[in-house]
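Q: Here's a chain of 414 amino acids. Please give me its 3D structure as tokens.
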Amino acid sequence: MNNKTATSARSREIERDARAWSTYSGMKYTRALRLMEHPLAQGILGERICARDMIRVLTQHRMLSEPVEDFDSDGQELETDERVTHLGDSGLYAAEKRALPVTTEDDYLALVLTAEVLRMFTQTAEPQSDAYSYNLKHTAEEFLGEHLGDFSYVANGQAILAAAALGIPVAESSPGEFSLNANFGLVPAQVEYARRMRRTSGSSRDNVRAHHHRPPGYLYLQDALQRYRDAGEAPGRWDGIDVHAEPLTSPFHEWLVAQADPAGARGAQDSRERLAGDYAAGVRDGDHGVARQPEEMLAILYGVGADDDFFDAARSAIIDWAKTSPLSNGIRTELSESSRSDHGGWGAGGGDTERYAFRCPCGAGTIVEEHDNVPGFREHDVWIRCDVCRDEWEFVPGLSVSGWRIQPIQAVAV
């Protein structure tokens, strides 16, 4: 399809949407046409959302509608093929009290933008009780309100309609009780991450460490709305790739969590079982991320304020991993001391000397990394200052001095 044909086809779709929305909302056609052409309504995290689909789902989606009943000549109720929506402003079964708001441009844009927020998340096959409409309505309000203040209110019914129009699985939160709320088929851990991020601001967001649960489209949508707000830049279409995605697993992660008690028992305070179980729970609950390398386990423990027993168990696990796993690419140990001193130089200008001391695997000595950053006398070196560890460990070849890793010395077969 050439550009002219593509443009014409798109224009026809927008015109059809404009006519349908004009009829449905009572809005003048020319106004509805401008609305369908609005930069924020062209699709950000996916294809442009069709207004006719929004209208159609109100009476075709079984969760959002009910059959229209008629009576035969004997006064018996008859079920017809016609359906009517019961979705209202406040949610399911609320249409009689207050209809969905559709009469203004902001009503439509709030609906479309709420759909974009819901498109951030990964869908699940079935609705989830931890991904319910009233929670996500607030998440959409807080997300949109921060970046586009005019859309800081989203109705519960709008969130439900947006989900249904996107094809997200939807179910009543309390079946048989005519609840206003609905559950959506979205990954609960991602929903909780978005809730945490939206309920905090500024530097407080640094306390949210569950970035491995971040919805894939979160950063792109945030950036697109900020650029539109600040520079009037029309959002481009996301390619579906989150280049900043945090890992959900790693070889060390899989090795460690496999050692948790399968029955859920925590084990003794300084046991591997307790370390593995609590670490796995922290990843699952979003208290911290995945340890991509074994030494990141220690940084995680520092971040959560763990007891000394956990550090001892972690150090033991890290050394065990390096000695037993064929997937190990070496380990780095903990920094215990660092210093920097200025040097006047040797006639070619001044510089400095950096010195770092790291704990050795046995804990009795150190690994020393030193950098002489003096013009005409630049040297960089790293060595093991421990008689025991020097006989058992070696540096992984091919790495820079500052990027060193150590591995067990392999016994040479005779």
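Q: Can you summarize the key feature?
A: The longest strand covers residues 123-132.
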